[in-house]
Amino acid sequence: FRNLLYQDASYFDNPAHAPGKLITRLASDAPNIKAVVDARMLQVIYALSAIVACIVIAFIYCWQVAILGTSLILLLAFVMIGLAYKISVMNIEQIKNDEAGRIAIEIIENVKTIQLLTRCDMFFDHYETASKQQKRSELKKGMIEAINYSITQSFMYFMMCFTYAVGIRVIYQGDKSSDDTFKGIIAMMLGAVAVMNSAQYFPEFVKAKTAAGMLFNIIYRKPRTGDLMEGDRPEIRGNILFENVKFSYPQRPLQPIMKGLQWTALRGQT
Questions:
Q1: Rounded Cα distance, 36 and 160, in Å
Q2: What's the CA gap between 225 and 7, in Å, rounded?
Q3: 1-220 belongs to which CATH class?
Q4: Which residues span the membrane (predicted)?
Q5: Are 118 and 67 in contact (CB under 8 A)?
Q6: Is residue 122 within 8 Å of 151, Cβ to Cβ?
Q7: pLDDT per residue over 12-23, tens digit each?
């Protein structure tokens, strides 16, 4: 919020930085990030540690099973990364096109005028249309999250099927003892359980990643007019001279508002 206060005027001329959208970002981004920096983050760290430990144990006792199980985990990781990227893109598009929050804030700010003009129904329709657009976007994301959830929550059964198939073959050929083979299989199955326990937080982490990117973009953005705390401190006498001033809004650079403006105001003159 402090950085927003120091932005140049052209920053707010951009429709993407409308007051309603900026307020929505301030209200939603921080809670979305906070949602994963709690016990959920701890569960994911536990799961990653368990997966590494289980892979090491499996390689010690039965490398054939370990290679297959590690390959399945890597394949699942690539699928989850792809789904996360897809959802992140959808989140960014949704944030850019988030009109519902902006409309709601601007309507409430001007509610007395809207009531006096008896245009409540019209503005309600605007808000409802924008909300339905958000709903459609959320449903699309929900489908992707459902695919991820179904894959991760059934991953243990895929792991069980493939590792037992390889383990039986290894025992049959006499490459490893049944004791070592089953230790490797159990280790990989425990790794799959760790994946299942942590993957349920997938939607929150993707949402937090997008929110963090938007939040830090605002925090680190430098105003075009320069740093407020840097620069010269000239002696100001109070005389102002405008000489051949040109101006156009950033969204319409080819439509000048001022052209060749020049005038002088002396100190004390109004």
A1: 30
A2: 8
A3: mainly alpha
A4: 44-61, 67-87, 146-172, 184-202
A5: no
A6: no
A7: 877 778 777 788
